[in-house]
Recover the amino acids of this structure.
């Protein structure tokens, strides 16, 4: 299933926005001309990753509660205390729109 979540121009590079696609909360991050989509829930604590900080140089998002950072490309945690990966989704820009694909 593909869903349009916003216009690409609505996202600022280095920022994150939360969207709900079907029943899933997804954090969408823009870094320059690319978009990434990751599940919007830290695997360590019930905290929205969309409230965290984006690290553009390493393509990571950090949880605000315990500072675990997750790869935007793989969903794997790069720092403790989180040890479980978060889901990632295919995110593309088509005709100026951000499209998220969920299997």
């Amino acid at each position: 299933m593909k869903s349009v979540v916003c216009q690409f121009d609505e996202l600022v590079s280095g920022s994150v926005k939360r969207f709900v696609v079907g029943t899933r909360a997804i954090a969408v991050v823009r870094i320059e001309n690319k978009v990434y989509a990751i599940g919007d829930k830290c695997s360590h604590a019930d905290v929205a990753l969309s409230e965290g900080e984006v690290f553009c140089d390493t393509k990571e998002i950090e949880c605000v509660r315990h500072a675990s950072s997750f790869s935007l490309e793989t969903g794997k945690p790069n720092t403790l205390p989180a040890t479980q990966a978060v889901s990632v989704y295919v995110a593309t820009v088509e005709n100026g729109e951000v499209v998220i694909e969920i299997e």
